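I hope you will forgive my troubling you with a question about protein structure. The full record is reproduced below for your convenience:

——
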Amino acid sequence: MTADPIIRQHLAHLRLRNLRPVTLRSRERLLLRLHEHLGKPLLEATDRDLERWQTSLRVTPSSISTYVNHARAFYNWAYEHELIDSNPSRGLVNPRIRTRQPRPITEADLKTALLCAQHDRQLYVWLLLAAFCGLRAGEVAAVNRADVRLADDGGAFLLVHGKGGFERIVRVPPMVLEEMRPLMRANGPLFRRPSGTPWPADQLSRHVSLYFASLGMDWTLHCLRHRYAARLVDLGADVRDVQALLGHASLATTTIYLSQATRHAAASVDRLGEGVKMMTRRQHSHAPTES
């Protein structure tokens, strides 16, 4: 099926808004798939068409939410520009996404993964940026030489292009920067495929997952980000500082990492609880006996 020309028009509008290339690619892929599902021009879709499309999706609730947001953004744009008389995406719903507990990679597995990745400079730096700077796969893929500001102490500060177009600055430790330097000799994206084109975020993420699988591990790149957050909390970092470093819009999202610290402190809490025995013994020793 020939691509709907309205997709090209919509993407041109997004470029004027200076949205990130990864957002443009994701929007384009979603609209192409939606057009194929509908079997007719996107602007002719009805409420019922989009409802059937959402019902047909066989992916995780998180992915469904992403697809719905892309479709809704497209139809909001079309309605605002008077390309359609009514907005058929009004009936789309975002599924409730349950809060998932962090799954940080173990220190032993991280050490093994880093040792085995040293033959591949890009892969090695991807792992470092996730485990020691807290970057998501999309943020790793978007790293540009111009985003790295060198510091006088041997480290650097990195402008991270986060989810939803939000940006933040994270610290790059000196040892991580040292491994990045060979990739910083040219301007533009740091990470490129053999063809010379930048790595798409989904392919970069899949590449790392396959790498872990080759080691007999079931981790993902995001598990290294979880490790970054959990270690910061363990080291006593303020939860609001961790929120800023991770780029979380909500503090509630960050506080789930406090549960990791709670587990690490469980032994101390148990030792504290042993005092109950002495207290209850004393109480029992003074309790009157029944006649």
